[in-house]
Input
Amino acid sequence: MESIAQNPWAALAYLVAGVCFILALRGLSSPATSQRGNRAGMIGMTIAVVTTLVTHVPRIAPPCPTGAICENYGTPVLDTLTLVELLAAIGIGAAIGIVTARRIAMTAMPQLVAAFHSLVGLAAVLVAGAAFLNPGAFGIASDGVIFLQSRIEMGLGVAIGAITFSGSVIAFLKLNGNMGGKPILLPGRHAINLGVLAAILGLIAYFTQDQSPWIFWTVTALSFAIGFLLIIPIGGADMPVVVSMLNSYSGWAAAAMGFTLHNSAMIITGALVGSSGAILSYIMCRAMNRSFLSVIAGGFGGDAGGGPSGAAAVDRPWKRGSAEDAAFLMSQAEQVIIVPGYGMAVAQAQHVLREMADKLKAHGVRVKYAIHPVAGRMPGHMNVLLAEANVPYDEVFELEDINSEFAQTDVAFVIGANDVTNPAAKTDKSSPIYGMPVLDVEKAKTVLFIKRSMGGVGYAGVDNELFYRDNTMMLLADAKKMVEEIVKSLD
Amino acid sequence: MDFISILSVFVLACFVGYYVVWSVTPALHTPLMAVTNAISSVIIVGALIAAAAGSLGGAGETSKWLGLLAVVLASINIFGGFAVTARMLAMYKKKVR
Output
């Protein structure tokens, strides 16, 4: 089988690129080595692109003199026009990419990542389409007949790419607020989805026997449709899982194209990205105590406050505190643990929160941050927001590492989080969030809980036991305003 | 490379991916997604081949334009992905003692 990576030096270069990508992920094991890792990734990508450009210099047949027979006339010469077009295409992409990366707000990271996933998906579709139209260029056909194995790889590649594209577009629209976070439930959607999926697989199987264009393009169209159908029933709060899952798909799409092109850099990358997304989806599902299938089946969780309202909430007694009370309690404390959630990001309160922490430290208080895995709209989102506000990363702890400390803590300060602090997840078997790992904030001597009003509930639509406990003081206000007032009272 | 060699690379890379990703600290999961997104755009290799091959004439014209468009999309991702990752990673600082 004649293929493109047959030049041994090129194959070696692609392998080196693949190793660079492994090192890029390896670097992320600690913030100290992470920047070096990112550079390894850039080096790997440069190697892959340069190798391809060198081994695939665009060539063109020389102009044919009049009267000559021009079939296979002379050796092809450098096609300058195409080379310029290629470099221009890279340049345009680079400009758009760099400007976007510089301008994007950190709170908007989830939608940016979703948008980027959609581009990988669409690029995979285009490459598969190009390979289908011109298989000779990829060395996957003889006399226009595409090899059997390549047809399967191409079919799977275009299908996964198309699903990644349309799914990511929907995820982007939901995360960006262009589309409501509420799940859209079509009647009989499971039957429709399974039917479309079966049709795609059936057509790919048929494609191995018959390489007619209509089959290829129908597979593409159906895959676009299923990506759309799969994501619309999933609620806004489940987006961390969806974004991770699409991350995984974009990897598998790259791997499938790597098989078609016999390119080790693409295969290694695809496998890395595919497993990375799959692991992140698993971590997110575990943190919500939900099975992956139930997330994919959809229908759960609109945006915060979208669920059934906790009617019982109104009658029970609870304590209300002021900013001065909160400032006094915290300034007297030995240790304060701050529990941020998505609400903090929405209120853009991270900077003033760090200011509060600085003031507290000046009072001799030890300040730590506790992050639940699903705080935010994508894995690790809260950590980035805190880092942006100059919170040192060694003050920020994961659930398992800090949960035992709440019992020795004077004040737990909950800002913008709700369900992840609900003790009912540990005790109440009838609660929809029963079994979900939660932060043990109620074990702290005092819990300060910032919330806009007593009416709303978290995305799971359940009332939080924490509000009515003796050691809880509710601070009812906009998160940012409340923290600003606390900062003033601390002076 | 025959199919089995390619498959071996793929399967082994899946295992490498599994272990490497579990060792990533949860605090860096967002940069992880941004950087995986950038590297999955290595699909640009296929796009470049399609775009460069088209000029040898014949059926390649459409294929070439699909390839060029894919080059643009993948470059957005590559440059955007690495740049935004670098921007995030630069924000993670240790406590000043």
